[in-house]
Known about the structure:
Chain A has strands spanning 4-7, 10-14, 19-25, 32-38, 45-51, 56-59, 62-67, 72-77, 86-92, 102-103, 107-112.
Amino acid sequence: GENVEQHPSTLSVQEGDSAVIKCTYSDSASNYFPWYKQELGKRPQLIIDIRSNVGEKKDQRIAVTLNKTAKHFSLHITETQPEDSAVYFCAASGAGGGNKLTFGTGTQLKVEL
Amino acid sequence: DVKVTQSSRYLVKRTGEKVFLECVQDMDHENMFWYRQDPGLGLRLIYFSYDVKMKEKGDIPEGYSVSREKKERFSLILESASTNQTSMYLCASSVGYGAPYEQYFGPGTRLTVT
């Protein structure tokens, strides 16, 4: 089955800096790559996703890039703010599982003032 | 606005008890999922369902079963609770067959088995 690895497990940045979180996946047939943000005590919520026919997607300060050849995808947050502090999860949907997602182990992002 | 609700936020059960966790979604979604979330392990899929009365095993189904008698409701059953099932349990739902779409999560149930 699909295996997703996520790095780093913790990330501390100064307010205004950029943050990058990287994930690799194993199933070359995977075609959907969402990113979820989970604030402390709250449910995970989708912040951005990308499908395999696209190399990059942007939404304001957040962008995701996908390299299908290397089987990795990354989340980029620019001009970080304290409210960006949360746990971020990447995920991949393998072709065999339809709507099934395999999640990475999460990155605790801390934005310091 | 999609709403996914779970029957309890916190639950304490004894070893060997049968435990039911309920999830309800109000958006007529075909797909429903049960995950457990443990520190450092991310979200791991226990079971999912793509239609009423249909179910498929996820990555860690051992010790769990599920039931989906109605489209809006998906239940997770711990047949005989054990201490290693102490965890946060998250339910999710999504629309559609075929191509994957956003999963909407419930607030979670923190289960403690003593």
